[in-house]
Amino acid sequence: MECWACSKRKSLQYSLLMLMMIHILVAGHTQGDCVEEERKALLEIKASLMKSYDSEIDKFLPTWVDYGSGTPGDGGNNCCDWERINCSTTTGHVTELSLYNLRGAKDVYMDNESKLWPLNVSLFLHFNELTSLNLSDNFLDKEFIKTGLERLSSLKKLEVLDLSGNRDIDNDILPSLKTLASLKVLDLSHTSLNGNFPTNEFAALENLEMLDLSDCGFNGTFEIPGSERVSVLKKLKTLNVAGNKFNESIIRSLNTLSLLTSLDLSHSLMSGPFPAQEFAALENLETLDLSYCGFSGTFEIQGSERDVILRKLKTLNLAYNRFNESVITSLSILSSLTNLDLSYNQMSGSFPAQELSHLTNLEELDLSETELNSAPNIQACKTLLKLKRLKSINLSDNNFNKSIISCLSALPSLKILDLSHSFSWGSSFPVQEIFTLPDLEVLFLRDNGFNGTIPMEAFASFHHLEMLDLSGNSFVGIIPSAIPALSSLRAVSFAYNYLNGSLSDHGLCELKNLHELELSGNMLHGTLPQCLKNLSSLKLLDISSNQFSGILKPSLIANLTSLEYIDFSHNKFEGSFSFSSLSNHIKLEVVRFRSDNDKFEVETEEPIGWIPMFQLEILELSNCNMKMPKGHVIPGFLVHQHKLRLLDMSQNSLEGHFPNWLVKNNTYLEGLVLRNNLFVGMPLYRNANMLELDMSGNGMIGTLPDDIPKFFPNMGHLNLSMNSLSGVIPSSVGELSELVMLDLSDNELSGEIPKGFFTKKSSLMILKLSKNKLHGQVLSGNLTWGSLYLVYLDSNHFTGKIGNKSNKETHESLSVLDISNNLFTGIIPDWISNMSSLSELVVRNNSFQGPFPCGAAPFSFLDISHNSFSGPIPSCLNLQDMEHLLLGSNKFIGSIPKSFRNLTQVLTLDIGDNSLSGRIPTFLGELSTLRILLLRKNNLSDSIPKQLCQLSKVSLLDLSGNSLSGSVPSCLHNITGPTDLAFFKYVKVRYRLDSSPHYGSILLGMHPIYLNSEVLETQDEIQYTTKRLFLSYKGGILDYMTGLDLSSNKLTGEIPQELGGLSQIRALNLSHNQLTGPIPASFSNLANIESLDLSSNSLTGKVPSELIQINFLSFFDVSHNNLSGRLPEMKGQFSTFTKASYQGNPLLCGPPLDNRCITQSQASKEEKRTEKWYDIDMTCFYGSSSSTCVVFLLGFFALLYINPYWRRWWLNSVEEFRRLFPTADASSILLHLSVRQLVLHLPQIGRHVWCFFNLLRWRFTSIQKLYEQSVFILPLIIKFQVVEVLISTTFKTVVFENQRQHPKCRYVHATLEKNTDITHHSGGTWSG
Question: Which residues belong to the signal peptide in this entry (predicted)?
């Protein structure tokens, strides 16, 4: 029995062996030898293609080569081995031709007929057994139709015809289609078909099973006449009419297509509630796509039809409509549903757990971006247990509370969960809501802002977890050492958190199954652990934007031969990295090294002649200090690369002519970034795939090539800025139909702008021609902006007035217009202020005049400074979104408008250098976002409102050059300054690499690879005085400037001590006011101040010695005050200040002044000498004056009493006055007599007084010199005796001698006439 069994087993083994051999023989002959007639026809097809595009033989279909005569099977002439061809395994006849996108270009919308392919249909009539013909995306022209498309009907086996993406094909093709009765699959999508649906033409295609007419121009409905309703397209199973303009009535017209299983009506023009009853006849429908259709409300199915409508439907896509929360209740009858997409609808409220529980067959559910905001109660959550087949749920971009996590734990079979951006930002991770999903494999929690440390305990139960994405949160601390517990992990992302610390030898290194590791955008530091080389399965490694340091050892990377994607950019690596260590990485596709320092070098040339095994698609080696040997321009290994799509070698000081062979070898190259090198010219080799060329900052000279469109016909982004290019801009550049961005700024270009830039046909969106020598009246006439979005024409020599907007302009896209620093004149037309898309307008420094027009344009940036605009500031502007408003240096009058109260988003407000008047409005203090406020050089008056102290974020406040009075508000110390950057931003223009699919990774696979082109956004430019220099400041520097300027006003009182609390301020100017009192010692707390100007006031006291503690003070001016005492020591910054900082303060002494200060020992010996003998004691002065008046009156009355003559004369005078004025009282009489005597004797009295004071001044000058010589000799009493003698002798001279004849009076008068300012001559001290 056993032997029989053994024999039977051997027999069976022999039989199986024979079958395997036969199978191998058959399989080895998968492609038969092609038919000679068909081989020649294929070569004719290639010849037709080459003739159309006048390109090199190897450019298209390189394997289609005629080696002359040969025998079948020799491999030379066997066309079945050629690319894009399938042959019958038995007959050798060609059965499939996949000739799609033969040019490999992304120019399906080209309309230049010279670039279209006039293919002759007759070439395909040789392929009798052809079943599939794909000619999509080949720019076929109408000649293809005219050569007799109907003749393809002779190909009886032709079942598949794909003509999609040929935009020149239109309705003329429809009659020819009638004859192709054998077709089962027809694809005419992305063509120029239009009008009503061509029912009659498709009636003959009775075998058609799949029809794709998406993205054509059909509209209206899909009408089938009565008698034909049963026969037309009766076998059709798949219909795609997405992206047309059909309305909801098309659904009713489709009722006859009873075999339809898949229907795509997305992107149609529908509205209202979902017409479910219209689908009653489509009982076999399994897949329905109604996304982007405009439906709203709910999804109602009425009465008896509830159980039959769409009962077989498995996949339903209702995304991007306006359905409300009741839609899920209506869908509960669709019990066969396995896939449901309701994303981007308006289903506010809690997660509809109970409603979903009826869809028991559901496997995939997408409720992302549906405005859900809470979790249901516990009972409703328990109903989710019914969804036993649900494996994937997407709830991203909602706003749940934390209890949603425990609710979802009721799903028994869930494997994929996406809760990205679904919680309130900045909350802690809900550790208490522990997941209990034992089968979970994929968990997305990115972009929630969770803080704290990474909660490994929350993931401990996920033994099958393969992907964990925690990127875009706020986690801190180190990467948990317990992460090896998740041993099934294949992909993990902690990117863009705040993780710090170094990578240990344990933890991540123990995840042996790890395929993808993303740690970018953190603060991790230290060296990379060598244990990473043990992750042999690793395909993606991204550690960019951290602080890793040390030497990047080649041995670490050399062992990771499975790598496909590496990104080590933006770290602190040092030393040299040998690129040849990657030579054996066969699968490597993406390499990114973007260095931020000069200590890291990528060595590409050692060992000499090394050959890479990889074929890269993306290579970025920016700022990597690559050193090329003599005769080499770029790395030598690139000669072996043929699949590059993006190459970035910017900032490497590479020099010479860029080699054309690199462009020739890499026909799919889309992006070439070579900025900031020393290349002398741009590559000139035809590449239809090239989308971006950036050669900015290379110092190229010469003119722009005229034939750029010939070499790069589909160029999308061209940046040649910051070179030395001259000459005119060739008009051919305006013919680049795909050009989206053109940057030729910072060159020496002249001439006028090509008219092609300003046409409706142009695709140009970003035009930057700043800082050239271009001229002409570029904005005159009727303007057509086309697709232009950002336009920078600043800093040229453009002239003329702004013309009218073209009446044909129906679409407004212009968002930014910068024409500053030109020679434009006239007024700003009204249409500019009324452009609904214009958000930024910069006309700075031109010669515009008149009033600025009102309008509704949503300006966020408006700079009209340095013109001649006049009248009041317009109060009718749309200020709702205004962030930067610069109106300075014009001729505006009136007061600051009340409409400025609406500047709730403003960052910069400049209305200085005008003729505004009135008070500073208090509501300016309510503009809480304000960073810069400039009101200088107007006619503003009254006091500084204390409400300005509420502007806590202000960094620059300039109120100088007005007529402001009152004191300096002490509350200004509340202005603490900004804490974030607001003036340094870039606009990143991003676009996809569309010609090939995105990088296929778990983490990045959902995101296509983009090219980035940075365009600096419109920048603030303001003028501010610091260190006595009135300069312009622009852009990011404004984030670091802080200053307060109250100079040239009429401010009084003392400087508040509280201003010393402005610790962040860099410039403080209080000069040219009427401030008094001392310099606050608290100014020593101004730790960051660089410029302090207190000149031209009436400040007294000393210069505080504490100020020498200020380390950054480079400008200090206290000149022209009344300061006194010793200056601070010449230490630190004070050692750099000269006499000019202190001039006009005669009582200051010490270096750098010439005035020496009395030492301490001298002061103790001569204490009395410290007081000037000519100083006035005010108490003694008032006492002596009063005593003199009393003595005079007593002497006057004593004289009347003693001398009878004077008494008689006095009494007669009184009687005479009474006779003349009988009503006068005694006081009036006395006053009259005194005045009368004063008037009669006034000339004589005046002469006496004049002589007295002249002699006194002369003798004081003399005695001053005597005093200075005898200051340390004469006793103090002698000095007083000298003064007494001086005054008495002078008085006697004046009283007893006639001043006219007195020689001393005449001498003093003559002397004083020659030297009229003795006080000035003596140092300014005598006036005291």
Answer: 1-32
What amino acid is encoded at 827 in this protein?
I
Q: Which residues contact 470 (CB under 8 A, 6 or more apart)?
A: 445, 446, 450, 454, 493, 494, 497
User: Is residue 668 exposed (0-12), middle (13-18) or buried (19+ Cβ within 10 Å)?
Assistant: middle
What six digits make up the tokens of 886?
Answer: 């610069």
Residue 1082 DSSP SS3: helix
Tokens describing residue 655: 């020099």
Integer angstrom CA distances of residue 612 from 337, 587, 588, 646, 670: 51, 11, 10, 18, 22
Distance, CA of 152 to CA of 802 (rounded, Å): 58
Read off the amino acid at residue 131: T
Give the separation between CA 1067 and CA 1320, rounded to whole angstroms.
Answer: 34
> DSSP of 1109-1165, one letter per residue?
G-SS--EEE--SSEEEEEPPPS-GGGGG--GGGTTT-TEEESTTSSPPPPPHHHHHH
Give the tokens for residue 1244.
């004589």
Strand partners, 195: 218
| Domains recognised in the chain with CATH numbers | 24-192 (3.80.10.10), 1241-1321 (no CATH)
Residue 1160 scores a pLDDT above 70: no
What is the rounded end-to-end Cα distance, in angstroms, of the chain?
Answer: 142
Q: Which residues pair with 750 in a beta bridge?
A: 773
**pLDDT at 1252 (0 to 100):** 52
Which comes out higher in pLDDT, residue 100 or 3? Answer: 100
Contact 140, 164 (CB under 8 A): no
Question: 117 with 147: CB under 8 angstroms?
Answer: no
Nearest residue to 1114 (alpha-carbon basis) of 1134, 1138, 1142, 1085? 1134
Helix 1303-1314 to helix 1242-1269 angle, to the nearest 10 degrees? 70
Q: Which position has the token pair 């159309």?
A: 52
pLDDT of 947 > 50? The answer is yes
What does the pLDDT read at residue 1274? Answer: 39
pLDDT band at residue 1230 using 50, 70 and 90 as cut-offs: low
Q: Say what the pLDDT of residue 753 is.
A: 93
Query: What per-residue string of b and e applies to 979-1017 under the rule 16 or more CB within 10 Å gives b?
Result: eeebbeeeeebebebebbeebebbbbeeeebebebebee
More confident residue, 443 or 1304: 443
- Mean of pLDDT values over 1159-1168: 56
Say yes or no to pLDDT of 1225 above 80.
no
What gap in Å lies between CA 753 and CA 793, rounded to an integer?
Answer: 10
With CA atoms as reference, report the closest residue to 1079 among 1148, 1009, 1170.
1148
Judge if the upstream peptide bond of residue 273 is cis by omega within 30 degrees of 0.
no
SS3 1054: strand
Amino acid at 187: D
pLDDT in tens, 112-159: 434 577 788 888 999 999 999 999 988 887 777 778 888 888 899 999
* pTM, entire model: 0.74
Please spell the DSSP secondary structure of 590-635, one letter per residue.
Answer: EEEEE-SSSSEEEE-S-STT---S---SEEEEET----PPTT-SS-
d(CA 656, CA 1026): 45
Q: What is the pLDDT of residues 862-890, one digit of tens each?
A: 999 999 999 999 988 899 999 999 999 99
Q: Check residue 23 and give its pLDDT.
A: 41
Structure tokens at 394: 């997407």
Residues 6+ apart with CB under 8 A from 274: 290, 295, 297, 298, 299, 300, 318, 323
Q: What is the distance between the alpha carbons of residues 810 and 791, in angstroms, rounded to a whole number?
A: 19
SS3 content of the chain, % helix, strand, coil (to 5): 25, 20, 50
Instruction: Give the torsion through C-alpha atoms of 9, 14, 17, 23, to 10 deg.
Output: -120
pLDDT of 430: 79
Task: List the beta strands (DSSP E) in 495-599.
Answer: 498-499, 516-518, 525-526, 540-542, 547-551, 565-567, 572-578, 590-594
My answer on whether omega of the bond before 709 falls inside 30° of 0, hence cis, is no
